[in-house]
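Standup, Tuesday
Yesterday: got the pipeline producing C-alpha cells again.
Today: sanity-check two examples.
Blockers: none.

Example 1:
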Amino acid sequence: MSTDDLPLPAHVDVVVVGAGLSGIGAGYRLQTECPDRGYLILESRETMGGTWDLFTYPGVRSDSDMFTLGYQFKPWREAKAIADGPSILRYIQETAAEFGIDEHIRYSTKVVSADFSTAEARWTLTLDHRGERTTMTCDFLYSCAGYYDYDDTYTPDFPGIEEYAGTVAHPQFWPADLDYSDQKVVVIGSGATAVTLVPSMTSGEGRAEHVTMLQRSPTWISAVPSRDAKADFLRAHLPAGLAHTLVRSKNIAFGTAFYQFCQQRPQQARKLLLGMTMKLLGDEQMVADHFTPTYDPWDQRLCAVPSGDLFKAIKAGDAEVVTDTIDSFVPEGIRLSSGRVLEADVVVTATGLQLLAFGGISPQVDGETVPLSEQFVWQGAMMTGVPNFAVCIGYTNASWTLRADLSHKLVCKVLNWMDGHDYAAVEPRPDRDLTERPLLDLAAGYVQRSIDAFPRQGDSGPWRVRQNYVLDSITTLRTNLAKTLAPTPRSAVRRAQDEKVA
C-alpha cells in the first residue's frame, strides 16, 4: 500500500512540514534519535524533493558541494561534486526509501493554519488534503519548508513587456515544451540561476544560437572543479563512510576558512577572485566592466560555476554578458538604457525568488496570530512566542544541510529533554533585552525585499544566528536547555484539564 492510500491520523507526536532535502533529513533524525516519538511528514506537492523536484530549468544544479549538501549519514557516491538537479533528487528519493522515511510522508497535504492550545499543549492543524479541508493534532510542529515561495516568484514590472513578440519564461516555472534551439536568448539576472542557465543553453543538443546574460550590476562568480580529485582518491582507497567523513570535513574546513578570509581581508579576496576570472577570460576590460562587483565577496552569496563553464561559453563566443538597465521591452527584444536593443526570441527572467516564512504558515497561539517580526530565533531553530515549534533554516554562506542537520539534532535533543522531565511544552525566552538584527544578514535583493516579515536574531549567545558551522557544531548541542527554554509541566496541563471538566 502506498502512503497515498493511508488516511491521515487524528494525532501524531511530531509533524514535519515539507518532504524536501531538509524534511527527509529531519525524518531520519527523529526515527533514530527519538524512536519513541511518532512522526509524519506533510508535503503540499505530489512528490518529494522540494526544490530539486520543483526546478527543472536547463542545467539546474547545486551551488554547494555534495559532500556537505548531502547527508552526514548517507555518503554521496556519484562522481560530480557539484551535482545536477536530477542526481540530487534521486539521492533524496534513495535516502527516503533506504531508511523507510517515505512511509511517513503524506503528499498533496498543505498546512493551511496551525493553532497551539496552551491549555492542551498541542497543535491543531487545518489541512488542505487533496482539495478537502480536514484537521489533525500534534504535540510538536517542525517547519522544514525552507524560506522560498514555491507558488510565486519575483518579477519586476518591465515596461512594454506586453509588446514583446517572443517567449518569456521564469526558471521556477520552466515550460516543459520550450524549444530554444537556434534561438537568440536573453537571460535577465546574474545570480546562481542565471550563471547556470547560460552555459547550459549554449551546449548540447537543442542549443541556442546565442545567449546574453543581462545584468544590472556584476556578481561575484568563482570557478570551482566539477569533480573533487582528493575525494575521488579517498573514495577509491577507503570505505565509503570513512571517505565521506574525511571529504566532508575537508570541505567544511576550506569553506569556513575561505568565508572568513573574504570577511576579514576583502581587498585580498577581491584580488584573488578577479585574478582567477582574468585567467579564464583573458580580457582585462571585460573583467573590469562585467565581473567586478561594487560589493565585497560574500556580502552576497558567491556564485559557483563548475569547471568555469560560464567563462568558457563567453570565451567561445556562444554567450556574452551585458551590464546595463532595461528601458523597455520592444517587439523584437529588449531596449536598454544605453539605447542598444538586444534581439531575443526567448527572454528568461532569472530575476530572483520570493521569500516566504515557514512555508506560508502563520502560527497562532490560542487563536491569536503571532507577529513574527516581533519574535527572536533561538539557536537558529526555535522561536519566542510560539511553544513546541521549530524551523529549519540553512546557512547562507555554506551548504544548507550543515545547519539543517544541526537543527534536526537540536529538535531531537529538546524532545528527549521534554520526555525526560515530563514537560508538555517548551518555549525559548531570553533572560535579557536583545538587540535585534535581520534573520538573514545578506545584501541580496531577494532577502532585502521580504526579510522584515521574518523573526529576528539577537546579538549574542543562542540568539545569534551565526554563519559558522565549525562553531555551531561545537556549541549548539551543548546548550543548556534549562537556561533558556521555559517549560510547561505535563502535570500542570492535566490539572488544568481536570479542573475544566469538573
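Example 2:
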Amino acid sequence: MQATTSFSKLFQSRLLHQYPAALDREGISGKRVAHRLSELSRIGLTEDQGSNRMSFSEEERAAKELIKIWMKEAGLSIYEDGAGNVFGTLQGKDQSQSIMSGSHVDSVPNGGHFDGPLGVLAALEVAQAWNETGYVPETNYEVVIFTDEEGARFNGGLTGSRAMAGEVDMAKQVKLTDYNGTPFEEVLKQCGLSLKNFSESKRSLDKVKAYVEVHIEQGKQLEERNLSTGVVTGIAGPSWLTITFKGDAGHAGNTPMIGRKDPLVAAGEFVSKLKDIPGQISSSGVATVGKLEVLPNGVNVIPGQVKLTADIRDIDMDLKDRIVEKAREMITEIEEKHGVQIDVQETLNVTPVKLSETMQQIAAESTAYVTGKEAFHLPSGAGHDAMVLGRYVPTAMLFTNSKDGVSHNPKEWSSLEHCVETIHVLKHMLEKIDQTDRSDLE
C-alpha cells in the first residue's frame, strides 16, 4: 500500500511539473485531471509500475466505482448496463437524444496509465466544467466507460461497445474462456453480471447524436510535429493471414545448397518484401509479421515447416483488399521460385471505419481554435470503441501526443499540458456539436 501511495504521489507530481496554469480556464482544471489520473494509477499497479486491470476483474470494477464517485461530484446521474458499461449523464434541455464521449479503464497485463483512462477523464472533465460554469447542453451529455476494450482476457475486445450496439454473437460469446480456462458466463457471475442481462445490453443508437473519443496516439507523429492534439481520419481494420510454408527438412551439413526446398528462406523473402507493398497502394496501409514459428527449430536442421501471421491494415477497405491481394500474388511467386508449398488462411477480416467528414471538420476547427495551430489529420492503426460507434452514429476521435509513441507499456506517458489542451479541444468540439442537428453531422 505504501509503495502504491508513493508511486501515485510521484506520478501526480510529475504530471504537474511545469504545467502551464494558463490552461486552467473555463472550468477545466489540470490539477483535478492529474489527481484523478494518479488515483486511477493506484488500481492494479504492477511491480514495473504499470497497470494491470483485466476486463471483468476486481481492478476494473474498482476503477469504475471510483469514477462513479467523481461522476456524482460532477452532477451526473449514473446508469450501468448488463455488459458493465457505465454511463454518467448530464441532463440537457432535450432529453430525447444524447451526445456521448468516453473510453475504457481496462488494460493489457502490464500496460500504461493513459490508454483508456485519459478518454474517460477527458469526457468527465468537460461534464464537470459545464456543471461548474452553468452550461446546460441542448441535449443530454453522457460520459461512458466501456467494458473490455482491450480484449486481453478473452482474445477479443470492444466487448462493451459491441454489446451496446447489438453486435455480439451470443452463441460464440458463451463459448469463450479466459486465460484461466474460466467460461465467459462464470466470469460475468464473478463480477456481479449475468448472461441474460449482458445479452440485453443493446440500446437504440439512433438516439445518440454523436460520439467523440479522446485517446493517446500510440505513435510518434504528433510528437515529431510538436502538436498536442490530432484529428483521426479513420480506424484501420485488420486482416490476418496465417501462412504456412512447407518444404523438405534435412541435415544442415549434408544437404547441398542446390536443390534445397527451405521454407524458412521462402518465408524470409516474404517477410522482407511484405513491408514494401502497402506504400505501393496506400498512404495509410501497414503490414506486419509479428509471429513466426519454425519446425523443428533445430540449429543444424533445415526447417520442414514455417508458420507465420501477417497483419495487414488500412482505413479503407478497398485499399486493404488490394494490399492483401498483392501479398497473395507475391506468395505465389515465392512458392514457384523456391519449390515449397504455401498454404494461406485468412483468420480475421475486420471492416475499417472512416470517420465522419463533418465531425473531422468540427474537430479540426476546434483544434485550431484552442491550439492556434493548423489541425493535423492522421489515421488510427489500432482499434477503439469509436470503431464500433462509427458504424452507427457520427463519430470522431482526438489523439493526444504520446511520448516516444509508447503504448501498452508502463513507460506510456502524455504530458499534462498536452492532455489538458486536448480536453479544451474536446470541450469546444462538443459545444459545437451540441448546437448542430444530427442530420448535419453525418
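Quick observation on example 2: Residues 317-338 form the longest helix (22 residues). The mean pLDDT is 96.
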